[in-house]
Design brief:
alpha+beta; four-stranded mixed sheet; about 25% strand
Length: about 325
Amino acid sequence: MSHFSEFLDENLHRAYPLTDESAGQDITDAFTLSTALISDIYLCVPNIPDVDKTKFYIENVLIRRYYIDITIGYDDPDVTRPLGVFKNISTTAAVHSTYDFIPTEFQSEDAWAPLFHMTGQVIIGDTLETIKYLGSWSFDPVDDAHSTYLESCRVAKGLLNVQYLSINNRLFTGQIRLREGNNIVLETAQRPIAGGDTETVITISASLNAGSSLQLTNDDDVLSALIDRYGVPLRSINGMLPNVERNFVLLGEDCTTVDPSGDHSIVIGNPCASPCCDEDANITALLESIANLNLRYAQLKAFLDSTASSVDSLQNKLLVLGSEV
């Protein structure tokens, strides 16, 4: 490793990894790519029949105060987009720091599509000279002066490697680890393919019970497995569907209450209908009130009877007086 580092140090100021013919001037002739910036570069290119390893070049260098982006292109009229970028290269990183290639992830839907998912790595040398020229600098390999072709030996073609992993229309590159979750089993196997080669097949299986090989391929399979294990689930109440968390919420109105009772029960009550006179003190007070009411009734009746008797006596006296007159 030390010999390799010494080799990089000795080659900081050579055209490598560009070809000797590439002068590295941008299209405005205001910027020349420093030979000290890139110590080495490596691209892993898919095995496309028409790909030419001599046509890969540096298409753009974006220089900011703290970061540098190096974009890689392919010199062919049918490849109209950059292939990818070595992004956010720190201008303060240690000499010979490495950065992974980030592919464009463009779906060209033609023979060149694999180029947009290639991999690679760059080794950065000294950025001191480069950061003096802040800006975006583009190159066009129309002539040697503006060319930034990479040495063909820095491009490997036809290596058997994983180019990317696609999940939910997102492409992931670099170091990727597949990890088994709860009741998930990952199995790998080698399968022969055309041409005498082999391919690696990764099978992802899910089971409701540890050790089971139950395959869940669609929603109906999942629902059937859940019903077999737990019974038919509650789907709606009077046509009302559950919330996003699959729950129903019971609410009480007016004098109705809904309270939990134990771990799996609820109590629906009506406090307004509960008896309020079942205590001895209340009954005693009620009886006393009834007795007082009866007493007042008796007193009022005696008063009415006495008054009626006095009225009758007065009428009789008036009749006697009237007859004497």
